[in-house]
Design goal:
Length: 141
């Protein structure tokens, strides 16, 4: 049983909104754009990792000290191996792990976009808002 009540929205002209209410709607829209940019950054990160893993793997070094990508021929660093010398299966599993670690962030940001989109429409205390917050919590777990 849900503990969220459905409250009908108050019908009124948008020109009757106070300046503070208009500012909150504008802020909500800005947060929608911000979270959409966060989604884009995560997807760009995954795309960049895929490019390095499968296309430019001969420009990357990997070792206990971390990961190093260079524009030209990578330097000969002690303890580092060329990423292209690793088997395709190893690189594929690494790419799967990257996607798996980025996916919760993308989905949480997606839900936050939906939540603030509702706020921008003036829907604050509704079942949909509670569902977005619940799913954000699930994705962050």
């Amino acid at each position: 049983m849900s503990n969220v009540l459905t409250i009908p929205p108050i019908v009124g002209a948008s020109s009757d909104l106070s300046p503070a209410h208009r500012n909150l709607k504008l802020l909500s829209l800005l947060l929608v754009v911000l979270f959409a940019l966060f989604i884009a950054s995560q997807l760009l990160w995954v795309f960049g990792a895929a490019l390095v893993s499968f296309v430019f793997s001969d420009h990357a070094l990997m070792g206990p000290a971390g990961f190093d990508v260079s524009m030209g021929t990578p330097p000969n660093l002690p303890g580092m191996v060329l990423y292209s010398t690793m088997p395709l299966f190893t690189r594929s599993v690494g790419m799967f792990v990257i996607v798996l670690t980025r996916l919760p962030f993308v989905l949480a940001f997606w839900e936050l976009c939906g939540l603030f989109r509702l706020y921008a429409k003036g829907i604050v205390f509704a079942r949909e808002n509670a569902m977005h917050l619940k799913r954000v919590g699930i994705w962050l777990l």
